[in-house]
TrEMBL record:
One of its GO terms (biological process) is alanyl-tRNA aminoacylation. Belongs to the class-II aminoacyl-tRNA synthetase family. The gene is alaS. Its main location: cytoplasm. Its EC number is 6.1.1.7. This is Alanine--tRNA ligase. It comes from Ligilactobacillus salitolerans. One of its GO terms (cellular component) is cytosol. HAMAP family: Ala_tRNA_synth_B.
């Protein structure tokens, strides 16, 4: 076995499969693109779904990658076990309907054992197979695996529901009995058993069945290979590490963390080691997730990042680290991963800022959490209990970021236990809510063999012309190939077409199809890419059409030109946002329609009105500068040297199109664009909003739509000026300001009069003190403007101590009610709380509320219930003894 670094192991894997004809794919971002079923990219195959289900046929059916992935379903195990991680890399080689078991098994064995590659000792390797898959067993024996090193395991069948599935083979490395946690003769001490000796390093899935919706299985029309080798695991083998953490992927992070904690060192105390491991693991996931466009928030993937940061901070405190420190580990992650992910160091300053800001925010939250912890301990002891309840313990964990083990330690220091079962119940309820919030469509689609098998040559000519003659090659109706179609909806492929297929945010072209006599025979309503890349037209057939017949295809030019203007505008907008907000901003999605454009982008916090105005000004200036828009067709390396911006969500072939607006904007793009920015005419942002954690959305219009938008605003302004009786539009703001000042003066006078009226009422109600059991109560309906004046009356009551309990109600117009309750400190000590009282009486007025023990308030929509509420309040106070 060779002595290899993690970078060498990763690169050697990719290089090996490149020699076997595989295309090496760059790791996709952790934030899934166009896949709502996933919160994160959680495996290598997650990025291959479109290939395996047949919706897209790759140019090369042999693919390999080292894919970074995130899983947080068992986050509590991180640091306590040898190999649990939130972020990990999955090395994989994939065959999409190309090679199968014979090649996959032979190449796996060659990579692992050949002196030219990993050079592992064959005697230390074991494999498992599915019992019914005797073909795989024979192939393993053929490459040289001893029969007693092959185990048949019933669980070796990969199946996640509807879509491709099949048997699999797992490869194990024997680390020796010295690494085992079991006796050698223990029943679980075998490859595939629950032990530390035999380490699973690779899984090869032979995807050969379609799992159909009716839970039956049929052979796949195109069999696939899907493999996964965990980089962290295999590195631990090469570096003779007891766990994944004692490798070059984690130790620099652990050593740096130890520098922040002068008191603790890794390898001395088991509990400290757990904290070191959690921090090292979490900062990797945090760094990559933020670098790929996610940001901390209270929901979705943003919540995952926030939770990871808070867990890491809490473990830092356990190591005696005070103040922000995690952000200083970001460049360490970048240095470890530099060979494969240079972008981490490029973005390090931005990622550090996000992490540091979140650490500071959590330190504020932490103080509230510690106060809640103290109150919980105090109340538990006061009630004579010895166990902290599960629900508030979960709140500490979920809202304030307290790991369960920290709460358990804190409780133990105070002679208490924790209701762990209650905590687990709350945890499971949260997981159920999270699962329900996401789509349940977890599996891939069933392969459509018809479209996969259609390999008709079809050329897109829409860059040069918007009308062209094309021979109708394929007619598909109800998933069947037809030679002709008389009417209805059909899908069609032509030898050439000017119709753009939807891609990169640009909507598909629409238009008509004519016969050779010039008669319209069909309307083109949509165009998508078929699995093999052809433009697949969805048409409404109006007259009979026949395969192998030539037709005239004509794009709706007016609509197409409007789309072009909006598409070029999105490129200008993209660059303008980078200019104003910073280079960390990148596109997160777009939609280019004929009448408007939509552009999603990443950014921390809101975009200010001033920034939006600046962006809009930049775009319009570029439009009015009459900049030529050019397209360069070149190879991807040349395009990158030109400085062209590539989008994470797109996969680029060997030849790419680069669209440039002079020297200002340069992007990879296969869409349609104007020849000169002046054709756009005018650009106007109509809205800006947040659509998710760290993601903003701008909607805008151009050309005629921009003029019409501004004209409507102008008409609205003119009407407003007329209503304000301004001499002209320019005077409207001053008129409005003067009107506002007059209104403010009148409101102050009204408030003053209302206060005097309330004081006069108060003089009467303070005299009406009632006995309620052992307590005194003032309960009255008053005629005031709302809750503010009720609180003013409560302040007067409190200053004079007219009674022990106060209950006030008022009607505020539109059929609404405000209630207020107040209680003296002496009455609180006797068990009467304003919050409890308000909750008791609020239902009478059709509402609800709450508050502190001394003051509470509620709203309602049932004025007729006021008298009943006041009476119920008096009765409730009397019942308290």
């Amino acid at each position: 076995m060779k002595e290899l670094s993690s970078a060498q192991i990763r690169q050697m894997y990719l290089d090996f499969f490149k020699t076997k004809g595989h295309d090496v794919l760059k790791s996709a971002p952790l934030v899934p693109q166009d896949d709502p079923t996933l919160l994160w990219i959680n495996s290598g195959v997650a990025t291959m779904k479109k290939y395996f289900d047949g919706s897209v046929v790759p140019k090369n059916r042999r693919l390999t990658s080292s894919q970074k992935s995130i899983r947080t379903n068992d986050i509590e195990n991180v640091g306590h076990t040898a190999r649990h991680h939130t972020l990990f890399e999955m090395l994989g080689n994939f065959s999409v309907g190309d090679y199968f078991k014979k090649e996959a098994i032979a190449w796996a064995w060659e990579l692992l054992t050949s002196p030219d590659w990993y050079a592992l000792d064959p005697q230390k390797l074991y494999v498992t197979v599915y019992p019914k898959d005797q073909d795989a067993k024979k192939l393993w024996e053929k490459v040289g695996v001893a029969p007693d090193h092959i185990y048949e395991v019933e669980d070796n069948f990969w199946d996640i529901g509807q879509g491709p599935s099949g048997p699999d083979s797992e490869i194990f490395y024997d680390r020796g009995q010295a690494m085992n946690n079991l006796a050698e003769d223990d029943p679980e001490s075998y490859p595939g058993g629950e032990n530390e000796r035999y380490l699973e390093i690779w899984n090869i899935v032979f995807s050969e069945f379609n799992h159909k919706p009716d839970n039956t299985y049929e052979p796949l029309p195109h069999k696939n290979i899907d493999t996964g080798m965990g980089l962290e695991r295999v590195v631990s083998v090469f570096q003779h590490a007891k766990t994944n953490f004692e490798t070059d992927l984690f130790m620099p992070l652990i050593e740096k963390t130890a520098e922040f904690s002068a008191q603790r060192k890794y390898g001395k105390e088991e509990n400290d080691d757990v904290s070191f491991k959690v921090i090292a693991d979490h900062i990797r996931a945090i760094t990559f997730a933020i670098g790929d466009g996610a940001l901390p928030s209270n929901d979705g993937r943003g919540y995952v990042i926030r939770r990871l940061i808070r867990r890491a901070v809490m473990h830092g405190k356990k190591l005696g680290i005070e103040g922000p420190f995690l952000y200083q580990l970001v460049p360490v992650v970048g240095q470890i991963m530099q060979s494969a992910y240079p972008e981490v160091l490029d973005q390090a300053e931005y990622i550090e800022k996000v992490v540091k800001d979140e650490e500071k925010r959590f330190n504020v939250t932490l103080k509230d959490g510690l106060e809640l912890m103290d109150n919980l301990v105090s109340s538990t002891k006061k009630e004579g209990q010895d166990t902290l309840p599960g629900k508030p313990v979960f709140k500490l964990y979920d809202t304030y970021g307290f790991p369960l083990e920290l709460t358990q330690e804190y409780a133990a220091d105070n002679g208490l236990k924790v209701d762990q079962a209650g905590f687990e119940k709350e945890m499971e309820a949260q997981k159920q809510r999270a699962r329900a919030a996401r789509s349940q469509a977890k599996s891939m689609g069933v392969q459509d063999s018809l479209l996969i098998d259609i390999k008709t040559d079809s050329e897109y000519v829409g860059y040069e012309k918007l009308a062209a003659d094309g021979i109708l090659k394929d007619i598909i109706v109800d998933d069947q190939l037809n030679q002709q179609v008389a009417a209805g909806t059909a899908k069609m492929i032509f030898s050439q077409t000017p119709f753009y297929a939807e891609m990169g945010g640009q909507v598909a072209d629409q238009g008509v199809i004519k016969d050779q006599d010039g008669q319209v025979v069909a309307q083109v309503v949509d165009v998508q890419h078929a699995p093999n890349g052809q433009n697949l037209h969805t048409v409404k057939v109006q007259a009979p059409m026949t395969a192998e017949t030539e037709y005239r295809l004509a794009v709706d030019v007016k609509r197409h030109n409007k789309v072009k203007k909006n598409h070029t505008a999105t490129h200008l907008l993209d660059q303008a946002l980078r200019d104003v907000l910073g280079e960390h901003t990148h596109q997160a999605g777009s939609l280019v329609e004929p009448t408007y454009l939509r552009f999603d982008f990443t950014n921390m916090g809101n975009v200010t009105p001033e920034q939006l105005a600046q962006v809009e000004k930049i775009v319009n200036n570029k439009i009015w500068e009459n900049i030529s828009v050019t397209t360069t067709v070149t190879d991807i390396e040349t395009a990158q040297k030109m400085g062209a911006i590539a989008l994470f969500s797109e996969k680029y072939g060997d030849v790419v199109r680069v669209v440039s607006a002079g020297d200002y904007s340069r992007e990879f793009c296969g869409g349609n664009h104007v020849d000169n920015t002046s054709e756009i005419g005018l650009f106007k942002i109509t809205s800006e909003s947040g659509i998710g954690a760290g993601t903003r959305r701008i909607e805008a219009v151009t050309a005629r739509e921009a003029f019409e938008y501004l004209e409507k605003r102008n008409q609205l302004l003119q009407k407003t000026a007329a209503d304000l009786k301004a001499a002209n539009v320019q005077d409207a703001p001053n008129k409005a300001l003067a009107l506002h000042e007059n209104l403010k003066t009148l409101e102050n006078k009204v408030q003053s009069l209302e206060a005097k009226f309330a004081s006069q009422q108060a003089a009467d109600i303070w005299q009406n003190v009632q006995e309620a059991g052992a307590h005194t109560v003032i309960a009255a309906e008053v005629n005031v403007s709302g809750m503010d004046q009720l609180r003013q009356l409560a302040d007067q009551w409190k200053a004079k101590q007219y009674s022990e309990v106060l209950i006030l109600a008022t009607q505020t117009g539109e059929g609404k009610v405000n209630l207020l309750t107040a209680v003296t400190q002496d009455a609180i000590k006797q068990g009467i709380k304003a919050g409890d009282l308000i909750k008791h009486i609020a239902p009478s007025v059709g509402g609800g509320g709450g508050g502190r023990p001394d003051l509470a308030q509620a709203g309602g929509k049932k004025p007729a219930g006021i008298n009943a509420a006041l009476k119920q309040g008096i009765d409730w106070v009397a019942s308290q003894g």
